[in-house]
Write a structure and sequence with these properties.
The structure is a single chain. The protein is built from 8 helices and 2 strands, in the order H-H-H-H-H-E-E-H-H-H. By secondary structure, the chain is mainly alpha-helical. It has one domain: Orthogonal Bundle (Cytochrome Bc1 Complex, Chain D, domain 2). Strands 1-2 form a two-stranded antiparallel sheet. A hairpin with a 2-residue loop joins strand 1 and strand 2. The longest helix has 14 residues.
Length: 150
C-alpha cells in the first residue's frame, strides 16, 4: 500500500491511517473495535455468547475456520446475517443475526479475522475476495442458516 503523507497531516492522523490500513499491525485492533461496536451486545465482550440470545464465538469456530468452505460460510453469515434454529456447543438458539453488508469489505475482513484469530486462535485467512463472493450470492438470513449444515 502506498501512502502519501502530507506535511500538514497531524501525527495522530498519520497513526490513525496506518492503524486502519488493511494488513497493518492495527488490523487486529480494527477488528476488535468493530467487534465491540457491532457484536458485543449479543455475543458478549470476549465472544462468550449470551445464553438464549447469541451463541459463543470464542473457541467454537476453529473447525469451520480451517476449511475454505467454512471460511466462506463465515463470510456469508457476516454479509447476509443468519436466522432460524442452530445449535452451538449443545445449546439451541432460534434468533436472528442482522446482516452487516453495509460495512466496507476491509472492515468485514478485519472483523472476521478478529473472530477467527483473536477469539479462536486460528490464522487470519479472509480477504476481500471472500467478502465479494458472499456479497454476490445475496442470500436471505434463513438461506444462510441452511448452508450451516450442523
Amino acid at each position: 500500500m502506498k501512502l502519501a503523507i502530507s506535511p500538514d497531516l497531524p501525527t495522530a492522523g498519520i497513526l490513525l491511517v496506518l492503524a486502519l490500513a488493511p494488513g497493518s499491525a492495527g488490523a487486529e485492533d480494527r477488528g476488535a473495535a468493530l467487534f465491540a461496536q457491532h457484536c458485543v451486545v449479543c455475543h458478549a465482550a470476549q465472544g462468550e455468547g449470551t445464553p438464549g440470545i447469541a451463541p459463543r464465538l470464542a473457541g467454537s469456530l476453529q473447525d469451520r475456520a480451517r476449511s475454505e468452505s467454512g471460511r466462506a460460510y463465515l463470510a456469508q453469515v457476516l454479509v447476509d446475517g443468519l436466522a432460524g434454529p442452530i445449535t452451538v456447543a449443545g445449546e439451541r438458539f432460534n434468533n436472528a443475526m442482522p446482516p452487516f453488508k453495509q460495512l466496507p469489505d476491509a472492515d468485514l475482513v478485519s472483523l472476521l479475522d478478529y473472530v477467527v484469530a483473536g477469539l479462536n486462535g486460528g490464522a487470519p485467512k479472509h480477504d476481500t475476495a471472500a467478502i465479494g463472493a458472499a456479497r454476490a450470492l445475496q442470500l436471505s438470513p434463513n438461506a444462510v442458516r441452511k448452508l450451516r449444515g450442523s
